[in-house]
Design brief:
single chain, 292 residues, mainly alpha, globular
């Protein structure tokens, strides 16, 4: 794979990761049509996702910093409560426990953790299925059509008003399941999770924030899972440089697309993306039968 091909795929990744048209679906389709050999398999995909992850961190750095601080305090309060429990049992006391989830950001942290659990399980168990599904055009095509349906449903759904304190833990878990399923190529992660958030009654601006921030542990987990297989792949220093160029392109383009997505969701402009997904999905399915 050349540097230009890597940058091209990085631009595609940056656009499609945050706009609800499926980055994995487009990458699978382009690699099948143009016979682009990434030579590192999932490693290249992970590096592109890391590039877009950095874009998320830049856009939401204030929220992330607050969440990190609250996560540390949550751990401190849990440790304090454990000591209190031990003292109460040992000395037959009735010392009061500290409340763990006592503000919006702490609730946000807990919800993201809950969403990450099913995502991680589904992603790990289905990782081989995802690789096989991406080697053909028909699966991305069908999933793109499903993405289009989800976007239309999200567009016609009533505006919700839920912020972290109003969101139930079951909502967070179900949205995590949706994110896990969206690892299938063609099923947009952002489109699927934002649609799930909106249908769960989330405030639209918070739905976008939740979707993108909850992607961070999922992307990091995929990267760690992939790192253990690097030794078995023919990854040269030159190839790493090529991958890095694609990751930079993905991050820069992704930053712009996050800002665009905030406007799209607020103004209910999903229908255009839905039509696009229908067209590309049908073309991919047709291409499958033509090529194979």
């Amino acid at each position: 794979m050349s540097v230009l091909q890597s940058i091209f795929l990085g631009i595609v990744q940056g656009i499609t990761e945050f706009l609800p048209v499926s980055s994995s679906g487009h990458l699978a389709i382009l690699q099948n049509i143009f016979n682009i050999n990434t030579e590192g398999g999932l490693l290249f995909d992970v590096m592109l996702h890391v590039g877009t992850l950095i874009a998320v961190c830049v856009v939401y750095w204030k929220d992330l910093w607050r969440m990190i601080r609250e996560a540390v305090w949550i751990c401190a309060d849990l440790f304090h409560n454990l000591k209190t429990w031990l003292n109460n049992r040992k000395y037959d006391q009735a010392l009061r426990y500290r409340k763990i989830v006592k503000n919006n950001y702490r609730k946000f942290v807990v919800l993201v953790i809950l969403s990450t659990i099913p995502t991680g399980i589904i992603g790990y168990v289905g990782r081989h299925l995802v690789s096989v599904a991406g080697a053909t055009l028909i699966v991305p095509g069908v999933c793109l059509i499903l993405t289009g349906v989800l976007l239309i449903v999200a567009d016609i759904s009533e505006d919700g008003h839920k912020v972290p304190k109003d969101v139930s833990y079951s909502n967070g878990f179900i949205i995590g399941i949706c994110q896990g399923i969206s690892t299938l190529p063609g099923l947009s992660r952002s489109g699927t999770t934002i649609a799930a958030c909106i249908m769960s009654g989330f405030d639209r601006k918070f739905a976008v924030k939740y979707s993108f921030i909850m992607s961070i542990p999922a992307i990091l987990g995929a990267a760690v899972l992939e790192l253990k297989d690097i030794g078995s792949e023919a990854v040269t220093p030159g190839l790493v440089g090529t991958y890095f160029a694609g990751a930079v392109a993905a991050g820069l383009v992704g930053y712009v697309c996050i800002k665009t997505m905030l406007v799209v969701v607020r103004k209910k402009k999903f229908k255009g993306f839905a039509i696009y997904c229908f067209i590309i999905g049908i073309m991919a399915i047709a291409g499958h039968f033509i090529i194979y």
